[in-house]
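User: Could you check the structure of this?
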Amino acid sequence: MNPSSHLPLILVVDDEASNLQLLRQILQDHYRLLFAKDGARALELARQEHPALILLDVMMPGMTGHEACRTLKADPATAAIPIIFVTALSDPEDEVRGFEAGAVDYITKPVSAPIVRARVRTHLSLVRMDELKESRLQIVQRLGLASEYKDNETGMHVIRMSHFARVLGLAAGMSEAEADDLLHAAPMHDVGKIGIPDRILQKPGPLDPDEWAIMKSHATIGADIIGEHPHGMLKLARNIALSHHEKWDGSGYPNGLAGEAIPLEGRICAIADVFDALTSERPYKKAWPVQEAVEFLQKQRGAHFDPRLVDLFVAQLPAICAIREKWAESPLAPAA
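Assistant: Sure, the predicted structure tokens are below.
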């Protein structure tokens, strides 16, 4: 195996051979390089080779760098590739045009080798961070789905309830970023069911007191699986796993928390989880009509559920029903 094959691939585009040679000298010890002398060839190589980053001249005959950049950003296959303009155009207006075209950075000629290497390194690090975040997200989502399959669910439950939670989180005053974290953490709410024996999870009749005690332990098992985290989505996921069976009046489990002592994310996911469970068909029950499920939430406001959140959830019912339709099982629970 070629030891350099793991190095990031960079596409360098410039119509001047001397500029290509200079950038080769600056970058060749740390990266694999591809070269193009016009925009059309740059588009072809970008689509074929999927470079990690593109260094792109602006003033080229035929297709300009701005045109090439806009074309790359319009193509889903190349839209995520970061583009840095390397150009003699140095007016602020030129930089603005470059950023409007979709570039992430702007280096003016004559180039400084340390600046080129630093800018390239920075943007490749950001790409790597995005890739790691996406991988972590997929692992979290797959683990959430694993708990649903063990519980004879279809996998659609965690998708629907997490989208319900996002809608309710926004209505409750969360920022877009906070609501997105909630969306991504909510699928972990029942991950602790992985630790519950199948004879209990899949028992067709009521659980006896000993079995129920074991079943309730899935909240703490889930928190243990996710682990302690100082901040971020995994901290949120742990809070949800541990608190989504707590009740507003203090009669829930595992800790008997009441009112606002229950984390907001747990109170939100309790409503999202129960509503979807009620309106979904399962081997042991028929799906409830939406209106009957809403009436149940309203009857339980102030007992099982945070009353303010119930009212907000009902106010968002059109968005909730749209999510149900988008992520429907077959057959879909009746709407009324």
